[in-house]
Fold this protein.
Amino acid sequence: MSVVEETPTARLGRRARRGAQILTSPTLLREQIEYLRHGPAPGTPPVEPTLRFPADPWHPLTESQWRSPAVCNICRWSGEAFDGARHVEFQLCPRCGSSARDRFLLWCFTTRTPRQPWLRVLETSPRMGAPYREAMGAWFTYAASDYDERAHRAMLRIDLQAIDLPDAAVDVLLTPHVLEHVPDTDAALEEILRVLAPGGRMYLQVPILQGFTAPPTEPEFHGDQTPVFWRFGFDLTERLRDHGFTATVLCTQPFSDAARRGDAAWSTDTAPEFDVASMLGGVVPEDLRVVLSQRRAERLGLWNAYQFLTFECVRHGRGLAGGAANAAGRLRAHLRGTFAP
Ligand SMILES: [Zn+2]
């Protein structure tokens, strides 16, 4: 049973795809025959019984969901409040465990990317675990780039500076809080451009704590002991453009308002790592695109607007809708269930 509420069409498509995979893979065919003869193998992991994701990630939240004080756009939970402090890394969904940052990333992706069949979505080191990855695998041809055999069949190990994927293999790259850990930013951006299909896009999140890019003044590590090489600022937008992307910074209404007025309406007592004055000194208001009103941002648990920024980077091309090569590549990846080489 899937964690995603399936539509009849999706179910038919999944079964057809699975059937094609079984018939073309001797190993799977053998397993299937074994299964039919003897039932499930001992040790088959039980499916999480309560967590369900919607059938369609593009389906908009309903007005009644928006009326709840808190609503999760990933699993569609709604209720009185999220768990934890009003911080980008908290406001955790009590059902799927998403943080405010996770919800903003998926919001940016699904509200800005045209709906297409079989999008190939690569996500570098997602924070969320197996049920989320399984849902992403049901919605898209999906791979997460860290290695965890329990989570998904299409796990990849990826160094952004030398991505082990063919050219134009990815339609959407989600990369939350990884680029600051990569020593050579330019090499990574070159590689990302190479693996994106024409019209493909990257939704890039890095901690923006200051206006301009600089290395950390003291050795800096994040929770899992990975070193931070760069603290990025808003000059990253120009750098993305230099590499050939059409780049904009997605934000919520109050941040755009503050960038234009030049004053901040936030107390940073609970998040002193953000230098809001420096951020507003470096931001280019014309580069910002508002993707959420203040009211809706707060319903999603995005409380302090300076903490919610996603770079949208589109590779020039005929758009995801255009291009027979794109469509053929997507279909091939969809049938194989992976776009790994
Ligand atoms: Zn949720």
User: Anything to note?
Assistant: The radius of gyration is 21 Å. Confidence is low (pLDDT under 50) at residues 42-48, 147-154.
